[in-house]
Amino acid sequence: MSTNASSGPEWSGDMLDRPEMVEAFATQLRRLLSEQAEYVARIRRDAEAMWRANPPEGYGSFEAWWAHRRVASPFAEIQQHIEKAARLTFALEARYRRRRHEIPAARQAAAQARQAPALPRGQAAAGRPGQPRPRRSRPAPAAAEDGFMDMIRRDRPA
User: Fold this and answer.
1) Using one digit for the tens of pLDDT, what is the confidence trace for 89-130?
2) Strand positions, DSSP E, 40-82
């Protein structure tokens, strides 16, 4: 797209790799389209005013209305299309930002999370959900000298 000095830099597709450049492009495009819509609106207003002030001779009222409609309606349609194009720049900006920047960043973050280093053996696996907690060993007997029979005698009521 070739531009003049007042409208800013000349754009190319590779400049749209950063979100702020996409925003600047959409803003500049929106401004240019709005200026063109206003230009068409001025011409339309002037044409309608001239038509009303100087209706052609030899036309009846219906013929004059019909001729006016045939002249003025294309201006109105062009103006509507330009205004719609200016509104579409918001969708362009949002889609481009989402598809080129936000979705790839989210995918990259998810891939990095999947490739996170695994915990070395022996570290707390209980903190990860879905993993069984390791069993704790039973406490050692009070005295190692006590034998089995001593433990039974102690627990048995006399």
Assistant:
1) 999 899 988 888 888 889 999 988 888 776 666 655 555 555
2) none
| Cβ pair 64, 55 in contact under 8 A | yes
Q: Which amino acid is at 9?
A: P
Query: Residue 80 carries which side chain, given as an amino acid letter?
Result: Q
Q: Is the dihedral of CA 43, 45, 47, 50 positive or negative?
A: negative
Assess contact for 45 and 76: CB atoms under 8 A. no
Most confident of 71-75, 93-97, 130-134, 137-141: 93-97
pTM, whole model, 2 decimals? 0.55
Long-range contacts of 130-138 (CB under 8 A, 24+ apart): none
Burial bucket for residue 95 (CB in 10 Å: 0-12, 13-18, 19+): exposed
